[in-house]
Amino acid sequence: MSMISVHHEPGVDETPFAERVVEEAVRQAEVLGWEAVRLTEVAARLEVPVSRVLAEYRDLDAVANAWFQRGWLAMLAEKPEGFARWPERARLEHCLLAWFGAFAGHRRVTVEMLRTKAHLPHLHTWVPMVFDLSRTIQWLREAAGLEARYGTRRAQLEEMALTALFMAALAVWSRDHSDNQTRTRHFIEKRLSRGDGWMKWVPGGGRGRATAAATL
């Protein structure tokens, strides 16, 4: 059986439409600021009816949710060889930096998205954001290969500690203008190393509690 070659028109963007909407919204936000982005203008730029954009995203907050999903995918991406044998601290550091690295090229817009979601009068955005944070931490634990089963005491300690660590690192990252996010990298490394120092003093379930110590 002969193979049929597939030819693509030169210049045709084969990026899925949903991703093109996100990318165009972020592009406009780099110029106008996130709150100034309008989906009608995104549709106009993409030369499609607004109804087609609406079929993918009900509002700008839904576009932001799709943007943040990229962080989850970055954490869960293929790991370096031997990753499973790395110390827990090193695995967590790798996955956290993968999340921040996914947005490094558009840090200001990403921070503006978070501020818009956290704006108190926006109940429809900041209440779900709490659950999105919880999902981020759950995916972080999965990506880093933490052993404790969901719902166990050790897992609960890890979740509390990692939530505090993530929020603290986010605050540093939001103002990090260093090359290759060096300030954020050093902050995460220092906090996780502090947790390792506590590990040997904690009886039973040490690794989960040592992770918690990283935020003290």
Can you describe what's shown?
The chain is mainly alpha-helical. Helices cover 67% and strands 0% of the residues. The protein is elongated and about 50 Å long. The N terminus and C terminus are likely disordered.
Taken from the alpha-carbon principal axes, the silhouette is: elongated
Into which percent range does the helicity of residues fall?
55-70%
Q: Based on DSSP secondary structure assignment, what is the total number of beta strands?
A: 0
Uncertain stretches of 5 or more adjacent residues: 1-9, 197-216
Order of helices and strands: HHHHHHHHHH
Q: What structural class results from the helix and strand content?
A: mainly alpha
Distance between the termini: 65 Å
Main β-sheet, in a few words? none
The percent range for strand residues is under 5%
Helix run count: 10
> Please, what is the average pLDDT?
83
Radius of gyration: 20 Å
Topology:
Blueprint: H1 17-32, H2 39-46, H3 50-56, H4 60-76, H5 88-102, H6 107-118, H7 123-144, H8 153-173, H9 182-199, H10 206-213
Quick structural gist:
The chain is an all-alpha fold. It has ten helices and no strands.
What are the salient characteristics of this protein?
0% strand, disordered C terminus, 216 residues, 67% helix, mainly alpha, 10 helices, disordered N terminus
